[in-house]
Design goal:
By secondary structure, the chain is mainly alpha-helical. 47% of the residues lie in helices and 10% in strands.
Amino acid sequence: MKDLITEALLYYGIEPKEEYYRMQAIGVVDMLQRAESEQCFTFENLCLSWDKQLTFLKEYEVKVEDFAQKMIDLEVKYVQQLPHVSDSLEYLKQLKLICSTNWFKTSQIKKLNTVGLHHYFDKIYTCEDTLAKPSKKHFNFILDREQLQANETVFIGDSYADIKASECGIKSILLDSRQIKESIYNQADAVVTDFKDIPKILIKK
């Protein structure tokens, strides 16, 4: 993420500073926190959040809309596929695979296409469709739309927002590839550090 922000800043002739990275992160967090309780995740609202936080853009006469679009356009360059994901999804494709994300659908589809994973998913849901994760409404919205039973569904994710699916009766698997999230291990039904271990868990189920 830092490399992405750096490239966007340099594109507009802005010297990267540590405080600028923090401002950007705060803007995204602010946006997602609001999106947990109201269906407000849009490009326009992201720009409003960044307009409040990225005050330095005005000094460089850069429009926040242009900067936000540049960030989104550059995202695909920095997406990387974790080891063993393709092989694991190839096995799991016999199941119904749904992608759930707290970002823009068009952007996520581009990233999935870049790493060759888009075709594995039957559907993609974002916080543009409903409230953002970890809201229960997000998970229940998907269950309802896909006519899934919570006790027959497993949610795989790499964050606190993902494993909160358990509050809806959905089994959760936390993927901690960098092994830095021990503090939330006890909130997941299972924890893996390598994607290849996910099929092994689902076979047991």
